[in-house]
Design brief:
alpha/beta, 17% strand, Rossmann fold, six-stranded parallel β-sheet, elongated
Length: 412
């Protein structure tokens, strides 16, 4: 091949077709733990394995699953951890820079992808920098926004500064929405790139509606069911959920509230709303059936980076009310596939919740539009976006090595 053709070659287009990646994915939460970060990250890992990439999963040892479960293409590296206050079922990874340096010197990954910013994530960042490994990161949790809900508002600026310092050392940081990208950019975060989240529309499907399940809740076919799914914690704005439900119940006495999730606010929710049907933590097909067997979904949180429950509720064909924020801002067209309230306007949120009572029946056009709006948000398109960003991070960190590999591929 002549030199002129070689000079015109686009290296970033060539390399993904030549080989698969070896990626170290670092996280402080992963299934069987149940939370949005763990579940969406597992979707990413499973999808990348299916696409032929090799994954080294680095995570704290879990009390519920203490043994490493290796599989084809995936190695699990378990690290030391401590329980997280208020969430003893979750673990906070302890510093482990030396162990990671030793492991990655022995078997060098093409890229280190860091999903959480705790001590383990920081250790992975420093180990990668020491070994000059490309790094990508994800901004998945608004820790600085959460601080005010735990009496730590005075730490808000300190936490934001730490997160900025953390992510600005990565080659790029993935964020789930354009609105969050703009917000973080104003705070000084650099090299931000938007990668959305997918939803499993085969799992979350109105066809999973289960009348037997509704009967176990004490609900008849003509009774509307209001659903909340999420962590039961101060940052989720559960007081507004209760206020909206109680106002709606004055309009429709047969309305029932079903709550899925657990957390430090569970007992307070039971006390303030004794009629609520509390189902605790749910996952898999059981969770999908609960979604499909409800009629309306309220999500009052204002601290989400995305909120995976929003696309799950839409895919399940529920009449949804949320703030114009995070996933709802990206996915909901007000009045078409859901209802939105201006951010922080609690009175408007309650009014929208009362309005949605007119749309609770399964054949309502809004519920049908909700389902249709999610059919194109499959995980394959998201995986392709992440794959593209990974190659971009590698190309930015090691342009000379990329050119050398491309030259060898062309000569072959």
């Amino acid at each position: 091949m002549n030199s002129a053709h070689e000079a015109a070659l686009d290296v970033t287009d060539l390399l993904p077709a030549q080989r698969c990646l070896r990626v170290a994915v670092v996280t402080e939460t992963y299934p069987p733990e149940i939370n949005g970060v763990a579940l969406s990250l597992a979707k990413l890992v499973d999808g990348m394995l299916a696409r032929g990439h090799e994954i080294q999963l680095v995570r704290p040892r879990q009390a519920v699953a203490p043994q490493a479960q290796h599989s084809d293409g995936m190695q699990v590296m378990l690290m030391r951890g401590l329980p997280i206050p208020h969430y003893p079922q979750l673990r906070l990874g302890l510093p482990a820079k030396s162990a990671l340096v030793a492991a990655w010197q022995k078997r060098r990954p093409d890229l280190v992808h860091i999903a959480t910013e705790g001590p383990l994530g920081w250790s992975a960042l420093q180990a990668a920098r020491k070994l000059r490994l490309p790094v990508s990161s994800e901004f998945r949790t608004n820790f600085h926004a959460y601080s005010a809900h735990y009496g730590l508002g005075w730490l808000n600026r300190t936490i934001a500064a730490y997160l900025r310092k953390f992510h600005n050392q990565a080659g790029l940081t993935m964020v789930p929405t354009e609105a969050l990208r703009e917000q973080l950019a104003q705070l000084g975060f650099e090299r931000l790139t938007v990668v959305g989240r997918g939803v499993d529309t085969r799992r979350f499907d109105p066809a999973r509606r289960d009348d037997n399940l509704r009967q176990r809740w004490g609900v008849q076919s003509y009774d509307p069911v209001l659903l909340y799914v999420g962590r039961l914690a101060p940052e989720k704005n559960l007081a507004l959920l209760i206020k909206a439900y109680q106002t709606m119940a004055q309009q429709q006495a047969r309305l029932r509230l079903v709550v899925v999730g657990d957390g430090p606010s569970a007992d307070e929710l039971r006390r303030r709303c004794p009629s609520a049907i509390m189902l605790g933590m749910q996952s898999g097909l059981e969770l999908a059936a609960i979604y499909a067997s409800a009629d309306m979904f309220l999500f009052p949180s204002v601290t989400e980076t995305f909120g995976n429950v929003t696309p799950e509720a839409l895919a399940s064909g529920l009449a949804l009310v949320a703030y114009e924020h995070a996933a709802a801002q990206e996915l909901v067209c007000h009045g078409d596939n859901g209802l939105l309230a201006p951010l922080h306007d609690e009175d408007a949120f309650v009014r929208r919740a009362c309005d949605v009572l007119d749309r609770w029946k399964p054949d309502n056009p809004m519920r049908l539009a909700a389902r249709r709006s999610m059919l194109a948000r499959d995980w394959q398109s998201i995986l392709e976006q992440v794959e593209d960003r990974w190659w971009s991070a590698i190309g930015s960190a090691e342009p000379q090595r990329m050119r050398n590999v491309a030259g060898l591929a062309v000569q072959v």
